[in-house]
Design brief:
There is one protein chain. This protein has two domains: 226 residues, 3-Layer(aba) Sandwich (Rossmann fold); 91 residues, Cytochrome-c3 hydrogenase, C-terminal domain (Cytochrome-c3 Hydrogenase, Chain A, domain 2, Irregular). Helix content is 33%, strand content 11%. It is an alpha/beta fold. The strands form four sheets. A five-stranded parallel sheet has the order 2-1-3-7-9. A two-stranded antiparallel ribbon has the order 4-8. Strand 5 and strand 6 form a beta hairpin.
Length: 336
Amino acid sequence: MAAKANLGQYLATRGVSRRDFLKFCAVTGSALALPAQKAAVFAAALADSPRPAVIWLSGQECTGCSESLLRSYEPTVETLILDHLSLDYHNTLMAPAGAGAEASRDGVLMDGSIPYVVVVDGSVPTKDNGFWSVIGGRSALDVISEAVAGASLVLAVGNCAAYGGLPASNPNPSSAFGVEALMKRGLVSEQPLVNVPGCPPNPEVLTGVIAHFLAFGTVPELDDVLRPKVYYGRTVHDCCSRIEHFKNERFALSFDDEGARLGYCLALLGCRGMTTRNACSSLKWNQGTSYPMYSGHGCIGCSEPGFWDKSDLYRDEGAMPERDGICVAPPLSPIG
């Protein structure tokens, strides 16, 4: 039987030149804060990496994380690396259905010789034996617990999988939790876990974590809530295009005033950029095109634990004062 192509060979068959691959490695290595002497090792190890199996499991979610992470407007090295992964199971993307779909997942789990990565998006309900979310007649908790038990790495993608997200917000009727909380409660076995939070998370963060794991067999250094420090080490405010206005105390007072049109800081309109750690303003979105504050909306803090329950995230329009017949959001605390 012919050996499976490694990542370098696979990318070559897809028309990716060595120069383009090295350029991707340089950019990704820089984002991962790799020292110069380690950059060449990173490129060589990544090119020689085997094709790992991936089981992508969903709990209580909106499919927004899958849409963000897997949809691409044009083929890029990043998306081809995601293509390179053997995505053996994904509720939304896979062609088989029913028993055929479950067989794809079980085939990986039962073959002890295949190392695999588990990606979880969505929170996991635990009330009523977990049957608020069911996959193939089994609770999501049961399916995820079984898959995580033998995983080489677990990625909790999106705020819901990382911290419970919207389903876990007050009053949390389904007793939903993120993957880390399930591990701490002994409902899921403890395995190497990386949280990639956001609503949705930035695709390049997931790609960078996977590339690091493929190249070195380890994950980047994590913070106290298991986020990769290289991507979540600074606040959104630190790299915001409006920061000079903040330093000079120039603030927009409503989303339609002159200050907003001039790009003034949105802190008084509830922007949580100063207390939110994420890569939105450094990596940006849609292949480096924009991010919320750049396009005129404040940060809502979606990469932080419990962000749905923090005060003043959204307001009832009936409670908003008017100015010249137009509803205007009153100044909010920048802390939120």
